[in-house]
Amino acid sequence: MTAETGIGARVKRKEDQRFLTGTGRYVDDLPLARATYAYFLRSPHAHAKIKSIDVSAAKSMPGVVEIFTGKDIADAKVGGLICGWVVKDKHGEPHKSPPHPVMALDTVRYVGDTVAMVVANSHDEAKDAAEAIHVDYDVKPANVDLARAFDKGVPEVHAAEAPGNLIYDWEIGVKADVEAAFAKAAHVTKMDIVNNRLIPNAMEPRAAAAEYDKGTGNYTLWSTSQNPHVLRLILSAFVLGIPEHKLRVIAPDVGGGFGSKIFCYNEETMVCWASSRVGRPIKWTAERAESFMTDAHGRDHVTHAELALDKDHKFLALKVETIANMGAYLSTFSTAVPTYLYATLLAGQYTTPLIYANVKAALTHTAPVDAYRGAGRPEATFVIETIVSKAAAELKVDTAELRRKNFIPTEAFPYQTPVALQYDSGNYPPIIDEAIKIADYKGFEGRRAEAKSRGKLRGIGFSSYIEACGLGPSRVIGQLGGGVGQWESAQIKFNPTGNVQVLTGAHSHGQSHETTFAQLVSDKLGIPIETVEVVHGDTATTPFGMGSYGSRSLAVGGSAIMKAADKIIAKGKKIAAHLMEASVADVVFENGNFKVAGTDKNVPLGAAVFAAYVPHNYPLEELEPGMDENAFYDPSNFVYPAGTQICEVEIDPDTGVVEVVNHTAVDDFGNIINPMVVEGQVHGGIVQGVGQALLENAVYDKETGQLLSGSYMDYTMPRADDVPSFKLGNKITPCPHNPLGVKGCGEAGAIAAPAAVMNAVHDALAPLGVTHVPMPATPLSVWQTIQGAQRKAAE
Amino acid sequence: MTISVAMTVNGKAVSGKVEARTLLVQFLREHLGMTGTHVGCDTSQCGACVVDVDGKSVKSCTMLAVQAEGAKVITIEGLAESADKLHPMQEAFRENHALQCGFCTPGMVMSAIDMVKRHNYQLDEATVRRELEGNLCRCTGYHNIVKAILAAAPAMKSAGV
Amino acid sequence: MYDFAYHRPKSVADAVALLKGKEEARPMSGGMTLIPTLKQRLARPSDIVDLGAIKELAGIKVEGNNVVIGGMTKHGDVATSADVKANIPALASLAGHIGDPAVRNRGTMGGSVANNDPAADYPAAVVALNATITTNTGKHTADDFFKGLFETALSEGELITSISFPKVEKAAYIKFPNPASRYAMVGVFVAKTAGGVRVAVTGAGPCVFRVKAMEDALAKNFTSAAIKDIKVPADDLNSDIHGSAEYRAHLVGVMARRAVDAANK
Predict the structure, then answer these.
(1) Least CA distance to C183: which residue of chain A?
(2) Is-above-0.90 flag for pTM?
(3) Among the four given CATH numbers 3.10.20.30, 3.50.30.30, 3.40.50.300, 1.10.1040.10, the one describing domain B2-77
(4) For residue A693, which of B142, C245, C179, B144 has the smallest C-alpha distance?
(5) Which of A520, A570, C130, C197 is the most buried (most CB within 10 A)?
């Protein structure tokens, strides 16, 4: 196709027209005739026994249609929510699986746990009635402090099913080998870190609407989901028992997800279930306060790490002990995040030959914790990249040089790490070189001195990340305990008039699939991009697919589209061969035309399509009519994007305020379909990473378990003036195993940024004797750290 | 308490019966079916609901519908001259990839237009970033939003809007 | 929010009559605090008396040595007023940094002062400038007006009609915003007027307060050096996840010095 719309072009987005004119259609925008509105009464306590629930007064409130409690759900034999990834502990036993009822029955386990569902004629009436429900709680002590979750005497979240709050004690690597390497080390760097808990905060709050058709017995559920097919599968097979073919799940325009909309949640389950009982459509949209309380949170690790180096500063071994917070219930993919998406990444970009990691997953009386942009990989990158920078500082060597010295050499790919993954491709030195150039690393000391003259402490930090995304193959994921396949589907459906619908199992909630996927098809089939419509998000129209998470849409979903396009071309060749009276083997496809090499014979794709739908001159005995091809693509390996970010900060020592003054990111995402879209993904990711490093922190009161950062009044969302504009660069090492040579770009920014920022903070404060600042490096945290260092210096 | 309310929205006279507690954003979304204006928080901070009331940008989640009695309201739906001719700010957002999921976009665009006008079409990056204090975006990292607003300011001036 | 009866009087007298007649009636000026409070169901007024249509309450004028600002004057109008900028630029600057642009288009000075949120900006200006608060029933001095956490000298049915600020020789307000809410975690207003030097602190404690030691030092020598060793005790200051009392006490000193430097510029 033309250079303006093909692969590699900065094509302006097709989806923008509706978003810019207020005509997008999000779940809450749906007009549903005779709709009712649900409101969920939630636990105000982190841990309590429910002695009784009295809904009698509430039931007679104006506008109330129905009220459901945990007992109604239990009586109806609704299944619990599931955890879809079975992690086996170090003894080979599957993880503990405490029940996760969609509505609390006799115990509430975190502030926000669902207690009752009120359905009324309006949202306000539902809320009015919820206030009239009387719940008698016997409040119990709560377990909120992650570092002490396994201590004796700490209240147990699920005493019977998970004694001592332990979900699993998991390990990877051979501890004895790692210990032996440490014994020979010339230098050991040690570190204790807390990877702060985050609240995803997609700007569109979660929402669900459901309608039951009494005539057909069909349910339709509209949900803010990143993966409507998987949601339907879970609801059908495990929770509600509605046969898959009687449940249609639609995820229309979805306003951001970042992982938090992957999971199957209580509210959409209840809305769907209750729609047939109420006999009218039900709508529910979370208030932001509910999003804070009940969206699955992210991160939340307590980690001790040690890195052993030899006298030449080569890494000998890495040892990591982590406690990972699961919250009060196991969310859909929670168990996989701190194991297969975390510990397997601990080699980073380095040749560290021996790695041992032990991860203990803990239950606490807090909201469930699951995948959030990066999911495990930011936590791994934070461990590696801060300990490497700390080692460089301790050894007084250049932080970039220490990295370079230990990089996996380019000629070593494919490279088998000691933690299961085999990196397919990579070329790290040119990336860091480019980042150093863009960031003017050489000029940094001059800038530091200039900042000092203004009373500011300036620091620089590196983060050279690796990430594994586009999970697969399904066989391996199954061996690791994953409950679903990891392929993606595509259907390319030509209409007789020559325009085309591309149906994908992936889902866009900001990722621009309607544009980039159209670019792929337009480029590959040589048809105008305006004639390509990408369809996603509806189980009734799209083939079963896994949805979008883990930076998989292009690498896996895009590959499926390419496979389907290959089938279109293969079929078109047969039709064209017939029309041109040539041998199929002689037909080539170029720029939208089938040709016979060495002749002027030519059949445009559109003509072949038309012939397929109006098969008057068509090889019907050999070939089916129609031009509609399906493909399923199961990746042969993960893809491995890599990059280096360099952050420069200035700290005001009087207030502790950290300002990001420069931030550079150079990434290798393999081939790039739309650089404009990729850059946008990186920008957004970086800001979520800067947010984690400097601003965002989900804080529960350690005694009461109340969420102290439960609104934008207390949870610091990054704003425009918290960040600078970014400097980006890229290097390309095509992925060798997918047809597009692409790697994922959605999470990289968030994976690399926290370490880059914190390393810069540490570098800035090093002259004061500071070696560690707790994350997030808020003004308070930095000021307290400086105070502590000054007290220590005075002693 | 049920009250009749009448106002002009995007040049059209509209009216309806609301409760005293009905917010302007609820009136727009639920009574008029104009769902372009979004609600992203409960604490007046995210800015997804920003509309123009009598020439001033306001958070329609923090204003009662009855307070807009007789007012001229402009929403995201009322900006483009036609489907082919977007407002220069909308165009700049598209040109600069200043939106991803689109949820914050209506409020972002409305605030941006107000910002450009208040600053007499002259803005610099630091001012744009500071003036966006009341609009949250989780997707773009603001980089391209800032770029779009800086690009739209001269475009609005030459278009006379 | 709970429903209520809504009134939109055209005069102060009508507003007062409406407020006095009802036990649970609440006046509403810009609504920037009240509406979010209602949305969270933290208040359940029977009646809302919207002051938005009372023309006599809005506006800015210079009267002799004072700038008089109507109670219903919006933050955005104070920020951009030529009269305020010419006579008390620090006040215009303060107003231009309250909330965000959309909030400044609705929020009012009278509403903010009457609400006396511990993290609001205006109380610092009112106290530091020794402003006079005029109501439908009389006048209050700044020092007597702010009584404590969300408490003022206003009695039932008493509405702020205007606030009179003396012109300044030198003044500045420097705020350390709460990183999340952007309300003042510590805000210090330093003013030198014909009446002397005043230093008022908002955000740090339950209510705006003056720092006498700083005022005395600055009266002798209006430089930041003069107050560099003056510490504010942390004992009665606020503490939360964004700032301990000690940190706030420290910030009072830093912001005060920066305010003096800014005032001297």
Answers:
(1) A713
(2) yes
(3) 3.10.20.30
(4) C179
(5) A520
